[in-house]
Design a protein that fits this description.
It contains 9 helices and 12 strands. With 286 residues, it is of the alpha/beta class. It is an enzyme of class 1 (oxidoreductase).
């Protein structure tokens, strides 16, 4: 299998390269050579690579900035997806697109199954939903994998932000009334490879196991980082309400995804706290 990865320099792009199965040849051109917003560049790269599968690991993920940078979010999360999907279809290749829990409004009280009715609250969620629709319309038979609360040892993410703030401050307030599931990027990458190699198409959900609030996640980061020596001084982590921390974009209060169909094919991954420890151990090793 020859696989072309868009967004190869991002958290997921790097993890896909690191976890690629032995029988996969990965083609991961840098962004300067593979501008997914440029139809001619995409057509040229796809024609040269002649992949059997194209994975879109690129996205505009600045949730709050998307409220004011709507055109940029639309360009990357919708238009570019259509360009990639069309190029993959024209090359006779499969197409994998990664989406998000933010397509849901968070009013549910049970995990969202893949066929749940979407209702995004902001520009980021809306553009990611429209990106899913573009993938289906312009490829015809894509694999769409929705995930949530993604982090890795490298890159800009919640874990990196918390570690920085915990080194700078003696007290932090973290939202406790938004519930979801943290996802260590290697889990997502391995799930994508398993589904893709199995020839699966349609919509699947993928996160680590378990449930947490952002506050729970932050407390776990604090405890694990202290144990590993990544933090030398304890700080106070206080639970706050969403209303205490206003942001430009509204966020779903409950965005736990139902992974039962995915896990039936891939097996149940580690609990999110186990994966968090693994991530922080990687950081501690340098």
């Amino acid at each position: 299998m020859k696989v072309l990865i868009a967004g190869s320099a991002g958290q997921l792009g790097r993890a896909l390269q690191a976890t690629a199965p032995a029988n996969v040849t990965v083609i991961a051109p840098p962004e300067v050579d593979f501008d997914i917003c440029d139809p001619e560049a995409v057509a040229r790269v796809v024609a040269t690579a002649a992949p059997t599968l194209v994975i879109n690991a690129a996205a505009y993920t600045a949730v709050d900035k998307a409220e004011s940078e709507t055109a940029a979010a639309q360009r990357v999360n919708v238009n570019a997806v259509g360009v990639l999907a069309s190029a993959a279809r024209n090359a006779g290749a499969g197409f994998v697109h990664v989406s998000t829990d933010f397509i849901f409004d968070g009013t549910a009280h049970l995990p969202y199954p893949p066929d749940a009715l979407p209702n995004p609250l902001g520009v980021y969620g809306r553009t990611k939903l429209e990106g899913e629709e573009a993938a289906r319309d312009l490829h015809g038979n894509p694999l769409i994998v929705r995930t949530a609360w993604v982090y890795a040892a490298k890159g800009a993410n919640f874990v990196a932000t918390m570690l920085r703030l915990m080194r700078e401050r003696s007290e932090l307030g973290v939202v406790a009334d938004q519930i979801g599931t943290p996802t260590h990027v290697p889990t997502l990458a391995r799930t994508i490879w398993t589904l893709a190699q199995g020839g699966h198409t349609g919509t699947f959900h993928a996160t680590d196991a378990g449930v947490a609030s952002w506050y729970d996640f932050a407390v776990a980061i604090h405890e694990e980082a202290l144990a590993l020596g990544l933090l030398t001084t304890p700080v106070t982590v206080k639970p706050i309400r969403t209303s205490d921390y206003p942001t430009p974009a509204r966020r779903p209060a409950y965005s736990v995804l139902d992974k039962s169909a995915t896990w039936a094919l891939t097996g149940i991954p580690n609990h999110w706290r186990v994966e968090l420890r693994a991530c922080l151990q990687e950081l501690a090793r340098g």
